[in-house]
Amino acid sequence: MLPSARLIAKLTLISSITVLTACGGSSSSSSRGGPADNPGSGNNGQPESQNHFDQTLTGFDGETVAFTVYAPENPQGKRVPLILHSHGFGLSRAKNFENPNPLESFLTNDISGDVARRAWLEKGFYVISFDQRGFGETTGNITVMDPDIDCRNVSQIIDWAEENLVNLSFEGDDPLIGAVGLSYGGGFQTVCSSVDKRFDAIVPLATWSNLPYSLYANNTPKNIWLDILSVASMGKLEPYLFEAIIGASTTGEIATETVTRLAGHSPLSFCEGEREDGRTLSTADALFIQGSNDVLFNINEAVENYECWKGQGNEAHLFIQKDGHILPALQTAGRQILFGTEGTLYCDGQVFQTDDLALNFLASKLQGTSAPAIPDVCFSLTAQQSGTSSSEVKRGGSLTSFDETQIIPGGLSNVVDLLTALPLQTVLATLSSLPVEASSTLIAVLTASADPTSLVDYLDDIVNLLPSELLSQLVAKGKFIPLQTVTNDGVLAGIPLAMLNVSGGNGDGNLLYIGLGKIPADGGDAFLINDQVLPIRGSGLIAQEMIGVSEPVTTGDTLGLMVYGFHPYFTHISSITQAPIPAAMSGTVDVPLVVNNGQ
């Protein structure tokens, strides 16, 4: 196990991964009566009874591809579309939407599972829920949405559906196909619909636009999520991906070849039109739903997808709500242990149930049924039962400059200060799993008989063993630089822009983390808006699109730039052990502030 994987245990995640591992091994590969028994039917239309059955096929490379087929109640044999559904990373397909056991309920307890279930039971659509490569009963190494491997398997499932679903509806020679899924189940939609143009409508929830940005923004690995993904892969990652995680956890670097390869597993590569294989972006209409507090796939990724789809002439909509990929020890947990989507969305007086929104969107695209008009872009604030909508995503809009401020890079001093403030016996009990040499060095540092820098070689182990309440204290060590006082009630809804001048410190080796913060009008400490920080590197003038925000503001609130010398989302050793040489920062921040009169 990688050193940082011990952090996952402290975040109460190993137990959930154990559950997911068990479910992957418990699936069966049986195939029983249903449309699969009628190959080559020619799609002439036949009466069907509500039914579901497991099916496998042999993939192009000899691996097994497993899926469950849901045929609707269709006594008149009318033509109906197909919805493809798949799971998040580390999970497996939905094998029984109608009467799930507790484990299956866990696997499908998200909005995408609700939509797929209702598409079958209420709309009378075909639904296929499939195991992605390396998960459940689908064999092969995990390739993280390789267009030539994962998407080829998806195309084979569609081929099977065309041949075997007797009442599948077509438009000419093209089957009518929609898709829904969350996270990894969103990634198959955006990437594979760009490979296989038979998709007509997609609903990706909490998914990526560009994997290098998701996992390695500004050449800084998001170790806390890389470790979780490593454990969730159950050792089935392609070797080059596992090597990348090892590098990220130790040196903090990922090979350029791997970064380039992962970029090709991203919808952005299809949008830019520079792929060597000549493939272009999906022609499917899309409804994107993303979480403002999602640390893995943030608002910016959904905005990039939305703008890409719109720019290529597709119909697209973007809904921002709070939940997404959530780290329980460091954030407020969502509907599931690691991820979730809010059930109700608010957009300038309109109220949508999220599953209704997604289901109606798919039905309108696949059957031409009427659906309530929905905005192009909506930032929903469910806790306030309010939201703001627009035709585009706001970038900046309220510019403020700030004077030179001192920042201390690195996490060494933070960790030592934190441990020094605790009783020595408490520290030793908490860190009792440390190697003897590390414990001896720690005691020497805490009793002032050794220099704190002697802890450098053991700092990663120490941080990974800290309980969540102490990790939270490390998070709170950011510097709040006041920018402006809010003069009208409103909402931050969009993407902030920063122009920063960084000098001193470690020069080109500087590694800092920035986000937007707020001090409420009624007092209290500054807090990081939407739990989002972005790494920045080097010195000199840095122009940076910050992570998008969705946050209500009240007259008298103070907005500011939060700057960290260390952050637990990025716990590779080089991020912690930067020399604590003061750096200076000045510049401007342009925040997307929308006041209540719409300005």
What does this protein look like?
With 599 residues, the chain is of the alpha+beta class. 30% of the residues lie in helices and 25% in strands. It contains 19 helices and 26 strands. Strand 11 (344-347) and strand 12 form a beta hairpin. Helix 4 packs across helix 13 (354-367), helix 5 crosses helix 6 (184-195) and helix 8 runs antiparallel to helix 9. It is globular.
- Write down the overall mean pLDDT: 87
Shape: globular
Number of strands: 26
User: What Rg is obtained from the alpha carbons, in whole angstroms?
Assistant: 25 Å
- How are the strands of the biggest sheet laid out side by side? 1-2-4-3-7-8-9-10-13-14
End-to-end C-alpha gap = 52 Å
List unreliable stretches of 5+ residues.
1-42
Largest sheet: 10 strands, mixed
State the share of residues found in helices, binned by percent.
Answer: 25-40%
Provide a count of the helices: 19
β-strand percent reads 15-25%
- Structural class per helix/strand content? alpha+beta
